[in-house]
Amino acid sequence: MRRPGLLSASGVILLGLIVMMTLHEWGNPLEGDNEAFLSAPAITAENIVARQFNRDSGEVEYRLLANNLEQYEREALTLLDHPDLSLNNGNNQWTIQADNGEVRDNGDLIVFENNVEAVSKNNGVTLDTRELHYLSGDRQVSAPDTVHMRHSEGSTRAGSMDADLDTGRMTLKQGVVSEFKGPKP
Amino acid sequence: QSGAEGPVEVSANQAVFERDAGTGVYRGDAELIQGNRQLNADVLRLFTENEQLVRVEATGSPVRMREGKDLNAHADKLVYDLKRRRLILTGNAYVQHQGNTFEGARVEYDLNSRRMDASSEGDKRVRLVIPAANASQARNGDSGGEESQNGEGNPGEDGSSTQSPANSTPATAPENSTPNDAETP
Question: Any idea which UniProt keywords this protein has (chain A) (predicted)?
Answer without folding.
Answer: Cell inner membrane, Cell membrane, Membrane, Transmembrane, Transmembrane helix
